[in-house]
Write a structure and sequence with these properties.
Low-confidence stretches: none
Shape: globular
Structural class: alpha+beta
Radius of gyration: 19 Å
Number of strands: 11
Mean pLDDT: 94
């Protein structure tokens, strides 16, 4: 196999209570990527359509992730070219950099005959995230590669648990058309939290994981509460409180900031409810005359996939 075409999915990270440790994979929002073998050694980004991003390998998240992977292998007598077709806007809060990072390492791994497992690939994709945000977090790249929900139990050593999604669970995500850089969203966070807030937060993380395993939709909803990060970041997102309230009034199990924002997600039971929430969210931004994009998606069980 000389060339491979991929779907590189968008993701929702944090999921309210799980800052930097929880994420899920979306099914119908994402980028496309072509990875091919090349006679020229190393990694080259040859084309980017849909976004103004650097072609220089060391300045592009997909290039950095790919190089991190190749550094662990014996030197090859060939290289790789990458074409990126961006549908996920940078700074949208649904894993734009993660999709590129995950796609690059997945594609090269396939062309090399799969020397690494999908879980192994996470550590390399994290280097792309480090370039994008200054922090090598896995809460987007893990679900992008593994599908479903993922829990990062530990970063040192890296320990990731994949969790199946209840089959009726749907996500609605609205992206107000402003860019909020992850690095800027991180700058408003406090380095210390109270013991009271921490206890509430880890109770919700445990509740959310338990709810996913037991398919207890009410427990999932009760656990989608962020005591620590959302109060600080929500002020950066236009209409956040009204969008969240509207989602809950229209049947959402819970709602919160997707990743570092500005996208806002809601989880619901059933596609009909998810679409009703999408309409209600849209109405809020229509009245505010704020451009937006909206996605309704089931949870993607596979992650990056070959087209």
């Amino acid at each position: 196999m000389k060339e491979i075409k991929l779907f590189c999915p968008a993701t929702i990270a944090n999921l309210s209570c799980g800052f930097d440790v929880l994420g899920l994979c979306l099914d119908n929002a994402g980028d496309e990527m072509i990875v091919r073998k090349s006679d020229q050694k190393g990694v080259r980004i040859t084309k980017i359509i849909g976004a103004d991003l650097p072609l220089e390998t060391e300045k592009n998240v997909s290039g950095v992730a790919a190089l991190a992977m190749l550094e662990t292998l014996e030197e090859l007598d060939f290289g790789f070219e990458i074409e990126i077709y961006k549908n996920i806007k940078a700074g949208s809060g649904i894993g734009s950099s993660a999709a590129s990072s995950a796609g690059a390492v997945f594609g090269i791994n396939e062309l090399l005959g799969r020397p690494f497992s999908r879980k192994d690939l996470v550590q390399f994709a994290m280097q792309g995230e480090k370039l994008a945000s200054g922090n090598a977090h896995a809460d987007n790249v893990a679900p992008a590669l593994l599908g479903g929900f993922t829990l990062v139990r530990s970063y040192s050593p890296l320990d990731i648990i994949r969790i199946d999604s209840p089959e009726e669970l749907f996500a609605t995500v609205v992206h107000p058309q402003i860019e909020l850089k992850t690095s800027d969203a991180r700058s408003v966070l406090k380095q210390n939290v109270s013991l009271k807030s921490a206890i509430m937060q880890w109770g919700n993380v445990g509740g959310l994981v338990a709810g996913l395993y037991t398919k207890d939709y009410d427990l999932i909803g009760r656990s989608l509460h962020d005591e620590i990060v959302e109060p600080l970041r929500s002020v950066l997102i236009p209409g956040f409180d009204l969008i969240k309230q509207t989602a809950l009034e229209n049947g959402a199990l819970g709602s919160g900031i997707s990743g570092s924002g500005p996208s806002i997600f809601a989880l619901s039971r059933g596609e009909e409810t998810a679409n009703r929430i999408a309409k209600a969210m849209s109405d809020v931004y229509e009245k505010m005359s704020l451009p937006y994009e909206i996605h309704v998606s089931k949870i993607n069980p596979d992650g990056v996939r070959i087209l």
